[in-house]
Every structure is written in C-alpha cells, then in structure tokens.
Amino acid sequence: MQDAPEVAVLRLGHRPGRDERMTTHVGLTARALGADRAILPAAAGEAIETAREITGRFGGPFAVEATDSPLGVVRGWDGAVVHLTMYGERVQDVVGAVQDRHREGPLLLVVGGGKVPADVYDLAEWNVAVTNQPHSEIAALAVFLDRLFSGRELDREWSDADRVVVPQARGKVVEDVGSED
Ligand code: SAM
Predict the structure, then answer these.
(1) Lining residues, ligand 1, CB within 6 Å
(2) Which parts of the chain register pLDDT below 50?
(3) How far is the CA of 144 from the centre of ligand 1 (A)?
(4) Which of 15, 52, 77, 91 has the smallest count of CB within 10 Å of its CB?
(5) Helix (H, G, I), strand (E, B) or coil at 116
C-alpha cells in the first residue's frame, strides 16, 4: 500500500482454459486488498485484461504485469518471498516476522494453482498456511493480505477512478467521477 515497500502477488501454475476465472480473481483480490502489483502468467490474457480494466474504472494505483517465467520472477526477486501453501507455517505464528521484513523492503506473495514446483518451497523465506486445510488461492491471499496490513487496506484511498461505489444499506449507488476528456 501507499508509503510502504511494495507488495507484489505472483500467480503460479495457471492452466489456460481451466484457471481463467481463478487467475482473474487473484488479480482483483490483490488489487482490492492492498497489494501494489499483480504478476500474472502471460498465458492468462483475459485475467490480465480484466485486472487492468477494473483498475482503469475503479482506480489505483495498481500495476498488472505479464510474465513468461513465473519461476524466474521468484528466483530474481530482490526482497522477501512468501509462498502461501496449506503445508506451511501458521499465518498467525509468522505474520509478525513478515510485517517486520516488509518494513525493510518489498514482498513477493506467491500463490499456486496446480502443483507448485518444489523449488518454490526452498526459494521462499516463508511458506505460510492460512489454516493447514486445503482451500483456495483467492481465500488464502485475501486472509493473508488482511493480516499483513492489519485491516488498514479496508480504508485505503483510490486515485484516478472513473467510478466510485457509494456504500448503501440496500440497493446500488455508483457515482461517475471520470474526467470528460
Ligand atoms: N496443495 C496445495 C497447497 O500447497 O496449498 C493446495 C492447492 S490449491 C488448489 C491452490 C493454491 O491455493 C495453493 O498453491 C496455495 O497457494 C493456495 N492455498 C490453498 N489452501 C491454502 C492454505 N490452507 N493456506 C495457504 N494457501 C493455500
């Protein structure tokens, strides 16, 4: 989030055709819950397009990048790598250490889809479980980001939005705030 070192989310193991919606939601969840950038496999064209389009409509800052080599991103990352996996250490036990590290520099959060290469477990500074039960990369990412930011992401400000949703007890109100040019 603003005024802190970068948090980027990397999606591994995208299966074209099968994972399009999940990868889209990884990107949208990363954006909505305070990450600065999503790095998505180049093969996930629809997900990349949707995440960029939503950022254009509902604001940022948020960057969406495509990569041909997700593992290369992990290997080349200049900062700490956190891999979300049901086999990892419990989020409630390690999040304090991750927060300390994030004060010093950027974090790469890695989520999988299909089988995650064994290398990733070794390359990660932390393998972190959001419960040691199998569920979903989107749920794991959402809970992890909320814990990382201690809920502050819920109050973040958005810049350059064309549309703003006005909270309502019932019904839908969306204000068009885009510039005319
Ligand atoms: N065997 C996988 C694992 O290592 O967590 C579950 C595969 S799940 C379909 C796809 C992705 O969801 C995983 O690569 C992981 O990033 C995330 N995930 C699923 N359950 C999780 C959990 N309990 N804690 C953290 N991440 C989880």
Answers:
(1) 84-87, 111-113, 116, 129-131, 133-137, 140
(2) none
(3) 12
(4) 15
(5) coil
